[in-house]
Amino acid sequence: MLEAGGRNTSLKTIMPGMMPFQTDRTNWRFETVPQPGLNGRRGYQPRGKGLGGSSAINAMLYIRGHPEDYDEWRDLGCPGWGWDDVLPWFRTSEHNVRGADAFHGENGPLWVSNQDHAHPGSHAFVEAASQLQIPVNHDFNGARQDGVGLYQVTQKHGERWTAARAYLPAKRDNLEIVCDALVERILFADGRACGVAYRQGGQSREIRARRAVVLAAGAFQTPQLLMLSGIGPGAHLADMGLAVQVDRPAVGADLQDHIDYVAAFETEGSFFLGRSAAGTLKSLGAMVQWLFTRRGSMTSPFAEAGAFLRTELAGARPDVQLHFLIAIVEDHGRTKVKGHGYSCHACVLRPESRGTVRLQSPEASAAPLIDPAFLSDQRDMEVLKAGVRAMYRILGTPPLAGYKGRDRYPVDLADDAALEALIRARADTVYHPVGTARMGIDAQAVVDPRLKVHGVEGLYVADASVMPRLIGGNTNAPSIMIGERCAAFVAEDLH
Length: 495
Fold this sequence. Notes:
Layout: H1 11-14, E1 30-35, E2 41-45, H2 67-75, H3 83-93, E3 94-96, E4 110-112, H4 120-131, E5 147-150, E6 155-156, E7 159-160, H5 163-167, E8 182-189, E9 192-200, E10 203-208, E11 213-215, H6 218-228, E12 231-232, H7 234-239, E13 246-247, E14 259-267, E15 274-275, H8 277-293, E16 303-309, E17 320-325, E18 339-348, E19 356-358, E20 369-371, H9 378-395, E21 406-407, H10 416-426, E22 428-429, E23 459-461, H11 476-493
Parallel strand pairs: 3-4, 11-23, 12-13
Antiparallel strand pairs: 1-2, 5-16, 6-7, 8-9, 9-10, 14-18, 14-21, 14-22, 15-18, 16-17, 17-18, 19-20
Helix pairs in contact: 3-11
C-alpha cells in the first residue's frame, strides 16, 4: 500500500480536540479556482494526507445518508447499490457502542461512539429545535433521518478512530505500507494495469502488480491520477501532453459538493470555546484530563449537534443539514477570533450544481484544478436561503437564545436579495466532494458497479469519487462502505 503522507500516529490525529490544528503534513489544503457563484472567491478544500485520509482530520461524524439516496444510485444504473444492498455492509463495518440492531453492527472494525461529554450549548441547540416541534432524533442512521440531535462519532475510548486505525493492523505478513510515496501514474501493459510509478525521497520508483491496482485517492486525486495515467477527457489530456489510454470525458466531471453557510455568534464570558486567558487555561486542563483519562472536552468533534430538515422546497428526503459548533468558526477555522461563541452551519444536501477536476500540470506534485461551480444552479441558492432561515429560527429560540449571542453577520432574513448577497460573500464547502469517477453501466461512466474502471483491466476505484450522486449527509461512513465492497469485489474477481 502506497501513501503520499505519513502514518498519522501523533496526538494531533489521535486527540479529537486537536482537529483545528492540522498542518501541511496531514492536510493537502487545496483551493478551488475562483468561483463566480461566490463573488469570485477561491474556496478552501482541506483533504486528509497520510494514513486514514480525510478520516484523520475530519469532524468524525458518523452519518450514512438517507436510504433513498442509495435507491437513487441503483435506479441511475448501479445495480446492487440500493439501500437493502448497502445496509449489510454498513452493519459489517460498524462497531457501535450501542450494540447491534436492524440498522447497526457491533463487531466491525470501525468504532462508533456516543458523545459522553457534549457541551451544554449543544444540548441547548437540541432543546431549542424541539421547542419548534422539530423531533429529537437519537439515531440519524436509524429508522428515520429527520430531526435534531447529537451526532455519533468515529471514536474508540475517547480517541479518533480513523479508517487506518480500523483497517490497517500494526503488522501483517501480506501487507507492506510505504509512506511518503507520491504515486505519479498507473502503469499499463496490453490494456491492463500492471503497477504504478511513484516518487519517494526524491527518487523515482516503480512497483508491479501481478493481479490488480486499487485507487483510493479521493474525489480530487483519484481523477487526477487517472488523467495523469491517460484515462480521461482526450482533448484535455492532449493539451497536457499526455498520451490517451482511454478517452473518458466523465473522469473529473460530475463534481458535487455540499455548499454551506456558517452563522457565527459571540458571547460574553468563557462558557463557549474561544481565545482568552480563561479559555486557554480550560483547554490546557482539558488536555491533561484527556491524556490521563481519554475523557472530557478534548473528545469533542466541535460539531456536536445537528439536524436534518425539510424546507418548503424539500421532496421525500430532508434537503438541509445543520451542524452546531461550540466555537466561532471563521474561514474554516483559519482566521482566529478573539472571544467566545458558537456557530451553526446550514448546507444543501443534494446540490444541482456540477463542477470539474482538471489537471493544471502533468506533474503529480501539482495540485489539481478544482472547480465545484458552487451555486451555478440557482436551485441550490433557493434551498440554502430556506435552510439559513430555518437555522436562524432555531438559533433565536430558548434556551439557545438565552445565551444572547451577538450575530457577527446580521441580515434581514425577509430581504431576499440581502440574504443572497451575504451567502455569496461567505458560503463555501462543508468538505464532501464526490462524483468525479462516477459508477454506472452507461457508456460514459468511469467505473462499473463492481468498481472496475471501464476500458482497462485490473484497475479499481474505492473512494467517494465513484458516487453517482452526493448522499444526504457526511461522506466518511459511505466511503468506508465503498471500500469494504471494493475489497470484496477484488477478492471475488481475483480468487
